[in-house]
Every structure is written in C-alpha cells, then in structure tokens.
Request: fold
Amino acid sequence: MTDMPAANAEVDVLVVGGGPVGLTARALLERWGVRTLLVEKHRELSPFPRSRLVNARSMEIYRQLGLAAGITARAFAPEFGRIRFRDTLHDGDFATAAMVGVDAPIPESPVIGVVTSQDRLEPTLLAAADAQVLFGVELIDLAEEPECVVALLVDHRRGGETRVRARYVLAADGANSTVRQRLGIDTAGPGEMARFTTVVFDADLNSWCARQPAGVYFTMHGSFAPLYPEGGWAWFAPTPEDAARVDWSDLVSHALGPTAGVQAEVLRVQHWVMNAFVAERFRHGRILLAGDAAHAIPVFGGMGMNAGIADVHNLCWKLAGVLQGWAGPGMLKTYETERHPVADLTLRQAVANTQLALQVQNRRREQRRRTGEAAGDRIELPWSERYFAQLGLVLGVSYHSDAVLTDGITPPEPPDAGTDYVPTAQPGHRMPHLWLAHDRSTLDAFGEWFTLLTPDPARWERQTTAPWPLRIEPLTDEHAGICGLLPRGALLIRPDGHIGARWRDRPPSDSTLRHALATITGSTPPM
Reply:
C-alpha cells in the first residue's frame, strides 16, 4: 500500500503476516497508540474463502473494535449456522447439527458468531486501522539485539531489500512460518493430516439449498459451502494425485451428483495442507508467535482462526504496557503461559471433531452397504448434536499465570473446558456478560484500560492507580451478587476482558488496587 521504509527505520511492533490474525493485531495495537508496521509476502489479500466461522468470542473482540456490526451485515443470516450431511448436495440430510452460538442468540454473550468467508472478513480488518501495511514484502531473516529485533525485508514488487528495527516482532505468518523456522522452534502434534483442494465456482444451486441453509454441506464426494449471501460456492475435497491434469469443472460437476444436470464454472483453485500441531514455544526473546505460526488447527469445528484472534487479544495489551512503561518486560512471559494450554486443548478438540465427522460418513457408508444405494434413513450422530457445542472452549477459557491474582476461594479447574459454558467471576476467566444498560454489556466497559467493576465506586476511587490506565464502572447489587461480591467488593478486569483479581468485600488497604495492578503487570508499584 506504501513504499518500503528507509533503511533501519524503527517501529514498536513489526507484524509479519496479513491474514485475519495479523490484521486484528494491527487494529488492536493502533488502538493502544503503538507504532506498527505489517508486512505480507503476498501482493494482495487472499482471494480464497479459507476460514469460514467467526465465533462468538471473536465477535466480542470485534464489537470492542467497533467492527462487529459491519462484519455481521456482510455475513450469512443465523440460519446458516448449521452443518448438514448428505449423500450428494441435492439429496436430503442424513444428519445435521447446529453451530451453537452461531445459529441463534445466546444469553451468555451480547453477540453471536457468524458464517462468513475469510476473503469477506479481511478487507474489513484492513480498513480498521491506518498503520502501514506493505504487500509483496517478505521477511527473510531476523536477528535479535539487546533492545530490538533487526528484520531483513525483501520487496517482491520493486526488488530490493531493507532492514527494519522493531522493539518486538509479532509473527502471524502461518503454519509454514518463516519466523518460527528461523528461530528453530519445533512443533508437537500429528503434523500433516491431509492434503486438500478448494475450488471456488459459480453454479445455480439455490433451488437445492434455499429451504435448508447451512454453512457447510458434507457429502460423500467432498464438502460444499456457500461463499457469500449474494452467491458463489466452494468445494473442498482431498487433492487427487494427478491434480495438475484434473478438469476441475467436470470433477465438481460430478461431485454435485450424476443426475444434477449442473455445470460448475470454476473461478479459482487452491491446494493446501491440513496441519495439526502446536509450537513448543510461543516466544523467543522479543519475538512472539501467534495464530497458525503458533498452532495449526484442523478445520473441522472452525476453531483455528478464532484461536489466533484470541492470541493477539491476549498479547497486544501486554505489548502496549511494556512499550508504554506501565508493565514490566516479564509480563510478556504470561502470553505463552496463558495461551499455550489453550492451543493444546483446541488442537485436541479439533482432532476429535475431525474423527467425529469421519465417523458420520463412515456410518453412512456402512448403512448404504447394508441397505443399498437408496438408503434414506437418518443416522445417529456420534456426538449427540454437540459437534459445534463448544461454548466451554469459546467463552470458558481460564488463564493461570502471574497476570492473574487468585482470591483464595477459587475452586479447582476441571481438566478440560468441555462443551458447556458456565459463567463465573473467578479470577482468570472471561468476565461474564451482564447487561449494564440497554444494549450495553459489561464487555462494552472494557477497552484500552483496566476496568474496576464495583457496587461501591466511591470507596475504590480513593485509591491511587497511576500510571496504569483504569476506569471504574458501577455494578448494581444484583450484578454484584451474581459475581460473588459483597456491597463493597470489586472485580479488576484486564484489558482483554479476563478477570485479573477479585475482592469479595472492601479493599484490605489503601494500596490494594495499586499493588494488584503492579503484580499483574510485573512492574514496581510507585511509592
């Protein structure tokens, strides 16, 4: 979008990768006033649909950035928040499941997730900030110095190289991350699971699907997905061995069904690898990994992109605090401490989702083998309608690190987040959604500051909190009771919406809040 920076130009944060995770990080950092440069090796935003689901937690983050309404307006209606299994696209369902938190409003959040294509989301994210973006510019090497990282960039459009000095590097450059490989960071997990091809095509399929909309139709001949409310389709299937010689139009038309009588007009074809791994480390000094660079999540369940968005929501306020001096450098250690276990859990859930989806199709094949090609009976789902019931993972993530102060009464956490979400005001958890006023949630009180929620603002306002950015928000007695607070208690909410500390009753001393902020941010409290 602009010219290469001058040699040895200085920025606060260099973001590597212009997908949804990198673009979200750029928007978040700009809100904090952090000087940011984003580089993307491709010459433009991706023209392929890729990720399809923006879950409720990601939409909460985009609501905070003022983007949720625009994203929703360009996405599919909630009734598309469903998956359907069919023999061919024009057959009836033999199984179906709702995407909980997408197909209808949920009381646990002021927003719902949406089905939308990544190529529809990315332009909205690009327009959400003014920080410099360089397309066609690739990071090819980097070296860490005591006070910065020196990154070597090459401009594939005009030629030439330049070096940029960044206080920190945020690598969101995908599963084949150059940054991760340059740092020698290994990965753990199954690795490459399968090779797929996405074919973007046009065809008149509305008569088959209009009455039974879905975000994805899994068939025995690949998966079909509507791309945009106004039209367009994608077909996903294992990559054939002779891919270079395939007539993709004929292949997609055949996958639609031999009696369909529909010819697909192929627009674009992309081959890709479904990986499954988590990086052994998310941080190397001043360099931090996020999104697919940190964890490659299989597509089944729609969790990969959303996990990356949550990564940078956790990380960007910490980078801002360190750069602006109200947090110590040690606070960046809590990024990996908090997000690595979530990545491990997300990977396990996604691999399980993949196995469940395959079970459905295997059961159907067995049913057809027993009863013949005309088998019309529905089959029993192996997940009891819970394939996309992931609110425990989407909204129920709990952090345990030095950036969370336990209150001594928090019960032990279950080993896994599970499918169900139970709102709680325990430290480490996302603050529950409560309506403070008409169309104003507790989540709307959070931003580029810490937030103190209390039924007794006057008492807590006496505490000195400089240099930390802090706002105090009153809670009704009813909401205080829901959060386990007595009339003079308080919750300290971090900028990412997670509860940093809880005092059930009055502050123990006049320095309680100051010391809590200092401990959470790894800094020294002012005298």
